[in-house]
Amino acid sequence: MKPTLSFLAGCVVAAGCSTVKPAPAVAPVTPREHNGEADIARFQRGIDFVATSNEPSWMLEVDFDSAMMFKSFGDEAAISTPVPPPQLVQDEKVTRYRGVGASVELIVQIEKKECHDNMLDETFPYAVSVDVKHNAASDYKTFKGCGRYLVDYKLHDLWVLKELGEGVSVTEKDFSQERPRMELNPGAGTIMGHTGCNEFSGKLITQGNAIAFQQLTRTKTACTSPVEAVFLKALQEADRFEWGERRLKLFKGNLLLCQFLKVD
């Protein structure tokens, strides 16, 4: 027998909803919205991470399924190596990749800490260093800059709650006003919407398929249905997402928490 919404709500009321799940391992800096068209083009090419600097000018693009590509604008040719398995350095805040090509070695280190680009007057969530060594060279040349993970712009839309849990459908009757909905803006790092009883907003953090909703706040309208608490708890616990066929699914590990339908 499938669980009912009243059963799920009862479990949440009994257990309480005060515990907020920590975010996935991503830096808490809310990104400034970047050039959407350029980022979409990169993302469609498979690029997951971008780093840059202006002193000197260089760019790093990483497709974690394929290659690391580095270009120093003082050099003629771009450098590309396969992406090796990541190495954790010192602690979980630093990840290191050592790529070896036919005639070059590329060491990329990504650290989760705020990095300010003075030329752009912008703060990024990651500090990045790139060490480059050609086979003919005796020493590495080091480049330092700031980086960020590209967001999945498919998330940038309005989503209406379809199911809570595995196959537990919801309708307007389950809520005092309407079905819960949310508008995600991954470029700006924000979420806003309606719980079915109250308006809410907060921070959105994504990294690949990892997702976290932080600092959720809502209005204080008294709700007759306890299902609002189930919905908010699902958002707080979500740590990854799947997208396809106009549906957005939120999971905690392998546990399906809720499903949304894209609204045109």
Architecture overview:
With 264 residues, the chain is mainly beta. It folds into two domains: 5-28 and 152-263, Lipocalin; 36-149. It is built from three helices and 17 strands. A nine-stranded antiparallel beta sheet has the order 4-3-2-1-9-8-7-6-5, with no helix packed on it. A hairpin with a 2-residue loop joins strand 16 (247-252) and strand 17 (255-263). Helix 1 (5-15) packs across helix 3 (227-237). It is elongated and about 70 Å long.
Record the strand order, biggest sheet: 4-3-2-1-9-8-7-6-5
Q: Briefly note the CATH topology name of the largest domain.
A: Lipocalin
Mean pLDDT: 82
| Oligomeric category | single chain
Strand/helix succession: HHEEEEEEEEEEEEEEHEEE
What can be said about the biggest beta sheet? Answer: 9 strands, antiparallel
Work out the number of β strands. Answer: 17
- Low-confidence segments: 1-33
Distance between the amino and carboxyl termini: 33 Å
Show the helix and strand layout:
Elements (H helix, E strand, L loop, with lengths): L4 H11 L20 H9 L4 E6 L2 E6 L4 E6 L6 E4 L4 E2 L5 E7 L3 E14 L4 E13 L6 E9 L7 E8 L16 E5 L4 E5 L4 E9 L2 E9 L8 H11 L2 E5 L2 E6 L2 E9 L1
Antiparallel strand pairs: 1-2, 1-9, 2-3, 3-4, 5-6, 6-7, 7-8, 8-9, 10-11, 10-17, 11-12, 12-13, 13-14, 15-16, 16-17
Helix pairs in contact: 1-3
Q: What attributes characterize this protein structure?
A:
264 residues; 17 strands; Lipocalin; mainly beta; 2 domains; eight-stranded antiparallel beta sheet
Briefly characterize the structure:
It is built from three helices and 17 strands. It is mostly beta strands and 264 residues long. The chain has two domains: 5-28 and 152-263, Lipocalin (Beta Barrel), CATH 2.40.128; 36-149.
